[in-house]
From TrEMBL:
Bilayer disposition of the protein: Multi-pass membrane protein
Main location: membrane
UniProt GO cellular component terms: plasma membrane
Organism: Lignipirellula cremea
Protein name as it appears in the record: NADH-quinone oxidoreductase subunit H
NCBIfam families: PRK06076.1-2
Catalyzed reactions per annotation: a quinone + NADH + 5 H(+)(in) = a quinol + NAD(+) + 4 H(+)(out)
General function of this protein: NDH-1 shuttles electrons from NADH, via FMN and iron-sulfur (Fe-S) centers, to quinones in the respiratory chain. The immediate electron acceptor for the enzyme in this species is believed to be ubiquinone. Couples the redox reaction to proton translocation (for every two electrons transferred, four hydrogen ions are translocated across the cytoplasmic membrane), and thus conserves the redox energy in a proton gradient. This subunit may bind ubiquinone.
Subunit structure: NDH-1 is composed of 14 different subunits. Subunits NuoA, H, J, K, L, M, N constitute the membrane sector of the complex.
One GO MF term attached to the UniProt entry: oxidoreductase activity, acting on NAD(P)H, quinone or similar compound as acceptor
Family stated for the protein in its record: Belongs to the complex I subunit 1 family.
TM region(s), chain numbering: 6-28, 83-109, 129-151, 172-195, 201-221, 250-276, 288-313, 325-347, 367-388
Catalytic activity, EC: 7.1.1.-
């Protein structure tokens, strides 16, 4: 077995182990944040197994996992059994495969003489990582639709339909937010996008604020988190597409949901917040082990901050109605995404014409102009459709006569 293959297997094992552990303990973190927002204690009783140590409920994820695994594997008689089993496996496999192109810190020196340098990414030769991520993220919707269809249940079917409509509607603003980054960096490679931001020292969050807002809101919707959890809202659809699921199959759906949130956080950090870059860090691709470790810590810290933001929003923001969800996508996010793409294209052309060497004063002028475009676009949208997401009761609608 070659050294390259051994290194790839080790990276895959570390990545999957880290993601599964992170998903488990992020559930505990979210429950603690929910308790903090709702002014209660949260999970704090389950400690380390076979001991009396109870530290902040650290045993809770293990207890939850064992509960799911030991539950009876029940399959309702009225479902389509092949699609019913395939749906959760498909959605989890797609969610895990996305991380093959996520870069964690450049390239480190080989462990022994004769060995090639080790890139800190599972698939280092994939220079179209952005396309790969979006292709696999689009596959996730098929897992949801299959689960809703195979369950042979009206609530599950409605959840699957809602999910497909929602994901298709928000794919467009998500892609438009991403295209601004691709235009600015001139690459579809995630590692190259980070290097461009590290070389210039300007994160795209500052240069493209409108793109960041559009991409973040669309990523919330793609991850189906509150206030965009219409496909599974308990009050209306009693769980939506996974109403008929239990045990390990339900666990696969829930883990995939958290992995989608982690993927969205990684993409936001890599595309708009410089990935592993921090001012003062070397911007070279090939680095020492110490620098690689520092980059991994910086990247993880940024991703954790975005995930905490996701969680705080989930527990403090009311759910949209479905008509509001669609109106937000087509009447607000899509026009803003188009404005951002046009503005970035114009600024890039002007920068190539007037400032090909990257002078600081003109670069600052373009950043200020981007913020001006962002403020003007939001003002125009607010004036054109001020009630798109208004949750107040509609007095102009007459109730149906019975």
């Amino acid at each position: 077995m070659s050294a390259t293959l051994i290194a790839a297997l080790i990276k895959i094992a570390i990545l999957i182990g880290g993601l599964m552990t992170a998903a488990a303990y992020l559930v505990l973190l979210e429950r603690r944040i929910a308790a903090w927002i709702q002014d209660r204690r949260g999970p704090n009783r389950v400690g380390i197994p076979l001991t009396k140590v109870r530290v902040w409920g650290f045993g809770q994820p293990l207890a939850d996992g064992v509960k799911f695994i030991l539950k009876e594997e029940y399959t309702p008689a009225h479902v389509d059994k092949r699609l019913y089993v395939l749906a959760p496996v498909m959605i989890l496999a797609a969610a895990l495969a996305v991380f093959a192109v996520i870069p964690f810190g450049g390239v480190i020196a080989p462990l022994w003489e004769g060995m090639d340098p080790i890139p800190l990414v599972v698939a280092p030769t994939m220079n179209v990582g952005v396309l790969y991520v979006f292709a696999l993220s689009s596959l996730a919707v098929y897992g949801v639709i299959l689960g809703g269809w195979a369950s042979n249940n009206k609530y599950s079917f409605l959840g699957g339909l809602r999910s497909s409509a929602q994901l298709i509607a928000y794919e467009l603003p998500l892609g438009l937010g991403l295209l601004g980054v691709v235009l600015a960096c001139g690459s579809l490679d995630l590692d190259t996008i980070i290097l461009r931001q590290a070389e210039t020292g300007v994160w795209l969050a500052f240069a493209q604020p409108l793109g960041l807002i559009v991409f973040t809101i669309a990523a919330f919707a793609e991850a189906a988190r509150l206030p965009f959890d219409l496909p599974e809202c308990e009050q209306e659809l009693i769980g939506g597409y996974h109403t008929e699921y239990s045990g390990i199959k339900l666990l696969l759906f829930l883990v995939a949901e958290f992995l989608h949130m982690i993927t969205a956080a990684f993409l936001i950090v890599i595309l708009f917040f410089g990935g592993w870059h921090l001012w003062g860090m070397p911007a070279e691709q090939e680095v020492s082990w110490y620098v690689a470790l520092a980059r991994a810590v910086i990247l993880s810290t940024k991703v954790l901050a975005v995930i905490v933001f996701f969680m705080v929003v989930r527990w403090s923001w009311p759910r949209f109605r479905f008509d509001q969800l669609m109106a937000l996508a087509w009447k607000v996010m899509l026009p803003l995404g188009l404005v951002n793409l046009a503005a970035v294209a114009i600024f890039q052309e002007l920068q190539l014409h007037f400032n090909p060497d990257g002078g600081l004063p003109l670069k600052l002028a373009f950043i200020l102009a981007s913020w001006g475009v962002c403020a003007a676009a939001w003002t125009a949208v607010a004036i054109a459709g001020p009630l798109v997401t208004d949750n107040r009761a509609r007095r102009d609608i007459e109730p149906l006569e019975t």
